[in-house]
TrEMBL record:
Residues 131-208 form a coiled coil. Pfam families: FAR1 (PF03101). This is FAR1 domain-containing protein. It comes from Corchorus olitorius. Residues 1-26 are annotated as: Disordered. It comes from the Eukaryota.
């Protein structure tokens, strides 16, 4: 078998591709496999599919590997769904094993003379629920929460400084009012004392007459 020869479908589960599938490059902002997608190596393709699976909500397994009869080099590989992760009972795990045996989701890769690998078949749909790993989401949420806490803490510090500044201004204003009232009170007292003195002198002058 040569590199350019067609490889048989794996377990009869590979679906014939259509022209429309080649345009399905993204799915809900997740980089999705598509027909004729090129990779520099089989390992790069496996890493890509593993990452895609983790984001969508399943784990992967190697379905098949074919080598050339001429040089023994790997020329094709099938990667498919292994199932989904999560906290499950034994019965659920057994049910999952049965489901994954018939899960059609997979990609089929072929290597060409250039050494590059290309996706020749892609099946998106699964026959079981998908459970997205929450670890990355939790990490992102924690980062967002920490960032928001830092922002709120910074706002609180600013408000505390403003509050302290306003308090100082208010105290200074109240002190000015107290000083002003005191000065007025002193002036009024002095005025009253002067008026009493004038009244006493006026009374004294009247008695002398």
């Amino acid at each position: 078998m040569t590199v350019e020869e067609e490889v048989d479908d794996v377990d009869g589960r590979l679906e014939a591709s259509t022209g429309d599938e080649s345009n399905m490059h993204e799915y809900d902002s997740i980089q999705e496999p598509y027909l004729d997608m090129i990779f520099e190596s089989a390992e790069a393709a496996s890493r890509f599919y593993d990452n895609y699976a983790r984001q969508v909500g399943f784990t992967t397994r190697v379905l098949s590997s074919h080598k050339s009869e001429c040089d023994g080099l790997l020329i094709s590989r099938g990667l498919g769904c292994k199932g989904y992760c999560g906290d499950q009972t034994k019965d659920q795990l057994k049910k999952q094993d049965k489901q994954r045996e018939n899960c059609p989701a997979m990609i089929h890769l072929r290597r060409y003379k250039t050494g590059r690998w290309m996706i020749k078949k892609f099946v998106r749909d699964h026959n079981h629920p998908l459970v997205i790993e929450l670890e990355e989401n939790h990490s992102r949420l924690d980062e967002e929460k920490d960032k928001r806490i830092q922002e709120l803490s910074a706002e609180l510090r600013v408000k505390k400084r403003l509050s302290a500044s306003y308090r100082e201004q208010l105290l200074a204003f109240m002190k000015d009012i107290e000083d002003h009232n005191y000065n007025i009170s002193v002036k009024v007292q002095r005025t009253l004392e002067n008026l009493k003195k004038l009244d006493a002198k006026a009374q004294e002058l009247l008695h002398r007459r």
